[in-house]
Amino acid sequence: MNKKKLLTGTITAVALSTLLVGGVTVFAANNTDAGASEEVYEEECYYEEEIDYGTLNEDEINRLNAIYDRMNAIYDEVYGEDEELTDEEFNARFARFEEEYNNLDNEALDLEIKAGWYGDLNKEEINRLYDIYDRMDAMIEEAIALETRAGFLEE
């Protein structure tokens, strides 16, 4: 999956992707009781010491967090002060980081799998899952365009 797609698109598409992809990963990483209140769950998501890193050793945990930090730095550099970029603007700015970002993303996925954040899914199944999320994003963007043309949404 090309996660840069999660960084672009409409607010609705990004929000849905974040809830689906990020929510599942964070939920698994935190190993939060499904019966816990939403307030407790939200608080736990922000504390690194609460994250269940499974069988990762300290060096692997540090590497995974360093990967996330670099990916966030790339995101910040691509967007800079301008939070609203067209797809073309985003792609032009992201192009110089794409190889590095994809390599980091792949390395992070290997560590996330080792940590047990994807349950029994193997890498091929996880990539299939992300492909499904990408198709969902495309469907949402198409629906929003049609809803806008129909007058259901303001432009």
Give structural notes.
It is a single chain. With 155 residues, the chain is mainly alpha-helical. It contains 7 helices and no strands. Helix 2 runs antiparallel to helix 7 and helix 4 packs antiparallel against helix 6. The chain starts with a helix and ends in a 5-residue tail after the last helix. The relative contact order is 0.16. Residues 1-44 have low confidence and may be disordered.
SSE ordering: HHHHHHH
The biggest sheet amounts to: none
What percentage of residues falls in helices of 4 or more residues? 55-70%
Q: Indicate the low-confidence ranges by residue numbers.
A: 1-44
How far apart are the first and last residues' alpha carbons, in Å? 29 Å
Mean pLDDT across residues: 78
SS field, number of helical segments: 7
Structural class: mainly alpha
Q: Name the shape in a single word.
A: extended
- CA-atom Rg in angstroms: 17 Å
